[in-house]
Amino acid sequence: MNRIKILSILSAVIVFFGSCSKDDYKLDSRSVDPFVRFNFLTTSAGVPLEYPTKNTGLIPVNTYENKSVKTLKIPVALTSATLKSPVIVNFSSTTSGDQNSYSMTPKNELLFEGNKLTDTIFVSFDKRWQDKQTITLKLENASDPLVHIGNLNTEATNNIFTINLGEVATTYNFPVKDFTIKGEVGEKVDFKVNFPNGFIPSEIENLEIFSFLNGFDYSLTHDDFGDNRNSITYHLTLLEDLQKDDVRYQTNITLNTTSNYTANGNTILTITKPVKSTRDVNANPASKFYDLSNSNYLTYGVNWFDRSGTCVWQAFNALTFPVVVTKDDPNAILYSDKGTTNPDDDVYHDAFKIGFRVATGTNTVNSFNLKRWFTNPSSSAANSPGFNINPALEFFPENGTSKTNGTVLVIPQFITIAGTNGNKYNIAIEGEGTYKEISSGLFEISFELKLTNEKLFGGTVTGKYKIYNKNGFPTVTPLDEPCRTAIDL
């Protein structure tokens, strides 16, 4: 009989005999012997399942290859009715390698009581292991002799769990790549550095993980590392007053690749105090280029580019979204009060900015047709987050109030794009142009995009673009000028 059938029959037995009694039980009134076992579950991709995620179709495993330095959580479950008194289960741990490379909480005792029928062993890694090693955990005994150690079968007892420490690769990135500030002394910006595979505090404490290109004075601190090995929160505090309206202030913080930590994904954080412009939010040009009632809403564009040796206006499209801001943002306009009188749930959009990104998931869109600028781009957001550009464009209505025309700015920023070969590049983008309503409800954005990267382009290159808020736009007249061809990343 396989273990799935055994567990199913056991569950049925527990339910069927729920009214039976056993006088000396401390575990309510059920007659099936309680048992304790490791309950470590993984998805089909080998990712550990953590509370509160559930999947009743998974079977506990007795080994796991760990390639992360994040704290590993190993659940242990006691199968029984509600406990009338606490049960302590002792466990042991041994390793084939360095005992000082990890620590365990609790050290050797698990506690089950009342309805708490699961306890967890936390394995924290205090330094990087050099060679592959194993850590073996074994359930030894229970304070209640009626609790059986391991499953009630001989095929998969799950009373021993082995961690195989494999080769670990630690990376980090910025989950958000830009912030806009007001420029007031004492203003704070909180940002995180994410560590998908965790980090070891002793390695990070004195590591120079940042390079700086500073456009203003600020201080930088971070929270205590604590037990969270998934991210570190930093706090930037502005030390000077940036109130010249006609000046753009910008600071770039770049993640360095070091011997143990590789910068991947968004690796440059930009903090900007933009040029101040008097604009009426009721002009709201951004609203002409998104429609949140349509989950597949696209804007449509053409880019003067080489196709099979001929320069043409090459068509592309991208999912387009507003930029969500807080109520106190100077460009905020109310999008929805969600049908309530409570202002706390109101949604505000930036009246002058739009962006291009996927609605959900880990893919990317073809912002500015950039995927065709390269022959071998990686389209995943983990490798090429720069294909999702949000925010991307900013509008400046004529006279600050026009609802039909004005100028447009490609918001200056760094984007990260990688090839399928693993090469990655930080590319600075900027540009400007105009926008106007060319027929009733049809808007055209016409602009030039500049991309800068010495290794890829030998400096700065440009591309001509037109973007429309609807499909079926007029045929665009070909240009009498050369165009770019795709290059390898």
Describe this structure in words.
It contains three helices and 28 strands. The protein is mostly beta strands and 489 residues long. The strands form six sheets. The chain has an eight-stranded antiparallel β-barrel with strand order 20-21-23-24-25-26-27-28. A five-stranded mixed beta sheet has the order 5-7-3-1-9, with no helix packed on it.
What layout of secondary structure does this protein have?
Layout (H helix, E strand, L loop, with lengths): L2 H14 L18 E4 L24 E4 L5 E8 L7 E9 L6 E4 L3 E4 L5 E8 L7 E10 L5 E2 L10 E6 L4 E3 L5 E3 L7 E7 L6 H4 L5 E4 L4 E5 L8 E8 L10 E7 L5 E3 L4 E6 L24 E10 L2 E16 L6 E5 L10 E10 L32 E9 L7 E14 L5 E16 L2 E12 H4 L1 E10 L21
Parallel strand pairs: 1-9, 2-10, 11-18, 12-19
Antiparallel strand pairs: 1-3, 3-7, 4-6, 4-8, 5-7, 8-10, 13-16, 14-17, 15-16, 17-19, 20-21, 20-28, 21-23, 22-23, 23-24, 24-25, 25-26, 26-27, 27-28
Quantity of strands, as a count: 28
Label the structural class.
Answer: mainly beta
Mean pLDDT, rounded to whole units? Answer: 90
Q: What integer value in Å does the Rg equal?
A: 29 Å
Sequence stretches where pLDDT stays below 50 over 5 or more residues: 1-31
